[in-house]
Amino acid sequence: MTVNIGDVVPTFTRETGFANWNRYAAVNDEFVPIHMDDAAGEAAGNGGAFGMGNLQWAYLHNMLRSWIGETGEILAMEVQFRSPNVKGQTITAHGVVTAVEGDVVSLEVWTDQQDGIKLAPGTATVRMGK
Amino acid sequence: MPDTYMVPEVLAAIGRECSRTTSYPITASDIRKWALAVYWPEMPPQKFIDAEYASEDFDPFAWGPQKYESLLPEDDGSVIYRHGINEDALGIPKWDFIVGLNGGMDCQYGVRMHVGDVITDVKSVGQWSERPGKNGLMLMTRHVSVWTNQRGEEVKRTINTGISY
């Protein structure tokens, strides 16, 4: 696959809430009040329970993994969790190519909710599969 | 709330190694369950069902380590710090935070994790900073976590950002 600056990676989308968060909590032992209880989420200043930043991190990896091919590798990723993922939001993981050096590709990545508001912006570097 | 979090004890802690944690051997079921959770409600790629290797975001320390060792002389190691560091042992003041949040991560990946691998995580103090926010003065921490496997190969190097207010 030829990759060019500006190429858009196919997105990865999930409607999120307790169904996703509880499953993630079960594998990651992350039964934290702010992810399970609206009162705790409200006390943290977010209006109610909100999802794990690490789950958005996983969604960004899922998006890249589908694109880079079976022999591709995710080499690096950095993300800042800027806005909470509250219940009922549809989260989409995005990526856009910003640089290409041989088979190593740099991208801008981010998650956003259904209104396009960014939740977790960042960057990633991948090695494209053959 | 203090006027500043950048007190001498905080600044003196920068760079100190805090803990060494060793995972149980990774199992096929660990890899499979993790993938099922992060791809739900769709099925994950077959390679994760078959546990060919773990996804990059997989955490082998979930549900407890095989061994935890504090590297701080002031810490007896009786409390396991999975995600953070023992700030009490470092002499960090006990501020009255309402909440601690995951502010983000910066990861460099090395070799993949496979069934049977035993991963060691060494955590050290990175940087501290502060900035005003809508909930008051926030303390930002950027601590370092380096994972290696039983062959000494680097699996992942992470800077974890924490936000407390």
Secondary-structure blueprint:
The complex is a heterodimer of chains A (130) and B (165).
Chain A: E1 12-15, H1 18-28, H2 33-36, H3 38-43, H4 53-68, E2 73-80, E3 90-101, E4 104-112, E5 118-127
Antiparallel strand pairs in A: 1-3, 2-5, 3-4, 4-5
Chain B: H1 8-12, E1 17-22, H2 28-39, H3 46-49, E2 67-70, E3 100-109, E4 120-133, E5 136-148, E6 154-164
Antiparallel strand pairs in B: 1-2, 1-4, 3-6, 4-5, 5-6
Write a brief structural summary.
The complex is a heterodimer of chains A (130) and B (165). Chain A is of the alpha+beta class and 130 residues long.
List keywords for this structure.
heterodimer; A: 130 residues; alpha+beta; Thiol Ester Dehydrase, Chain A; five-stranded antiparallel sheet; 5 strands; B: 165 residues; mainly beta; six-stranded antiparallel sheet; 3 helices; 13% helix; globular
Describe this structure in words.
The complex is a heterodimer of chains A (130) and B (165). Chain A has one domain (12-127): Roll (Thiol Ester Dehydrase, Chain A). Helices cover 28% and strands 33% of the residues of chain A. Chain A contains four helices and five strands. In chain A, a hairpin with a 5-residue loop joins β4 and β5 (118-127). The radius of gyration of chain A is 16 Å and the shape is elongated. The relative contact order of chain A is 0.23. Chain B has one domain: Thiol Ester Dehydrase, Chain A, CATH 3.10.129.10. Helices cover 13% and strands 35% of the residues of chain B. Chain B has helices spanning 8-12, 28-39, 46-49; strands spanning 17-22, 67-70, 100-109, 120-133, 136-148, 154-164. In chain B, strands 2-1-4-5-6-3 form a six-stranded antiparallel beta sheet, with no helix packed on it. The model of chain B has no long low-confidence stretch (mean pLDDT 94). The interface between A and B is medium-sized, with 35 and 31 residues.
